[in-house]
Amino acid sequence: MKTSTRLYAWLKFLTVLHIVEQLIFGMQDLHELQHLLAGYECRLGNARASIAALVLIVASMAAFAIRGIVKGGFPRFVTMFALGLPTLGEFHHVLESLKVGHYTPGTVTAVPSVICGVLFLRALVKEQQSSEGVRVREALELPVTA
Q: Does 141 fall in a domain?
């Protein structure tokens, strides 16, 4: 199993723990998301149509992500990198806690999530670089003729 695959599994586990922590101690992120969604619905006017469009967009993105992962190579790298980037954004919990001077929900699991996210992205880049190096070496080798 690739290092990036193992680290991605840990990221998903930490995501579940992060959500549980926020459910127990408060979900400020949910309120911010609801506010964004309400603004989105107001701009489009029709709530049902706006939700249907959002579901269509998310389902299309998921289908492209699955295709990229299954295809492998550079499309896998791009897809996995895009899926790993949001973990770096969890650092905002640490900044919020420092700003207010006390614990805010999500901080405890944000620290290992960010660390694991950095390790994951680093592993992805290393794997991509090593696979590119193999392709270059294969292209440079001369065919053996007898």
A: no
Q: Judge whether 40 and 54 are in contact, CB under 8 Å.
A: yes
Name the residue range of residue 40's domain: 3-136
3-state secondary structure of 86: helix
| Nearest one of 103, 99, 112 to 26, comparing CA atoms | 103
Confidence of residue 133 (pLDDT cuts 50, 70, 90): low
Kindly write down the DSSP assignment for every residue of 108-126, as one continuous string.
Answer: HHHHHHHHHHHHHHHHHHH
Q: Is residue 37 part of a domain?
A: yes
Condensed to tens digits (0 to 9), the pLDDT of residues 71-127 reads 988 999 999 999 999 999 999 999 999 999 999 899 999 999 999 999 999 999 999
The phi and psi torsions of 46 (rounded to 5 degrees) equal -100, 115
Which residue shows structure tokens 């992060």?
A: 18
- Alpha-helical runs (H) found in 26-106: 28-44, 47-71, 73-89, 92-100
Q: Are 15 and 114 in contact (CB under 8 A)?
A: no
Provide the token pair at 24. Answer: 């127990």
